[in-house]
């Protein structure tokens, strides 16, 4: 793995305010960690760092960092980006020795075409990276995962991966990397009584009543009450004297 050159400057001021001003001028804050040294605040050019990370090695790229007149071999320890825009916000760099092994997270690379996918199955990722331990120069750019023989219901585990070189896997070898799962079929539930559509009743429309019921309805009608005549006799007119 080839080194990528990157220059950095010592950062004089720290804090959120100064970090914002740095980003507006095309720089981002950084911290350099060394085995026997105190963490050193730095600033690096944003575009230069983006260029260094754009290689196939990604965040596992080996960087020849120049601070003043002293070059150092470093790798990215942690990278912070804006969750919305994806802009670089901060980077932690770790000084390393090319003769000492280190831990790294290597992305997987799916290769081939699974027969199970052609049959309608779905490729499901269980892992995106594999943690390994090796020399910095032996860190692979990616770990190939061949899915050419997977049918529906089949899986590939870490123990099935073919990794060459002096690389130690730091994860459980029985852990699943990818699998082909059956397509999901959405079951339609039968309608509930409340969901059954009935013909609406038209307001104001009279229902037809069979002839028999009409007759019964008339017979059932109570007779009208007769007006009672007054039993009192009319008063006699008084004669004028």
Describe the structure.
It is a single chain. With 241 residues, the protein is mainly beta. It has two domains: 3-96, Ribosomal Protein L25, Chain P, CATH 2.40.240.10; 103-181, Ribosomal protein L25, C-terminal domain (RNA Polymerase Alpha Subunit, Chain A, domain 2), CATH 2.170.120. The protein has four helices and 13 strands. The chain has helices at 16-24, 46-53, 115-118, 211-219; strands at residues 3-10, 27-34, 37-45, 62-67, 70-81, 88-95, 102-111, 122-125, 129-134, 143-146, 155-157, 168-169, 176-181. The chain is extended. Mean pLDDT is 84; it is low at 226-241.
Key terms for this structure?
Ribosomal Protein L25, Chain P; RNA Polymerase Alpha Subunit, Chain A, domain 2; four-stranded mixed β-sheet; 4 helices; 2 domains; six-stranded mixed β-barrel; 241 residues
Number of strands: 13
Instruction: Tell me the number of helical segments per DSSP (H or I, 4 or more residues long).
Output: 4
The helix fraction, in percent, is 10-25%
Tell me about the largest β-sheet.
Answer: 6 strands, mixed, barrel
Which residues form runs of ≥5 with pLDDT under 50? 226-241
**Structural class assignment:** mainly beta
Give the overall silhouette. extended
In brief:
By secondary structure, the protein is mostly beta strands. It has helices spanning 16-24, 46-53, 115-118, 211-219; strands at residues 3-10, 27-34, 37-45, 62-67, 70-81, 88-95, 102-111, 122-125, 129-134, 143-146, 155-157, 168-169, 176-181. The termini are far apart.
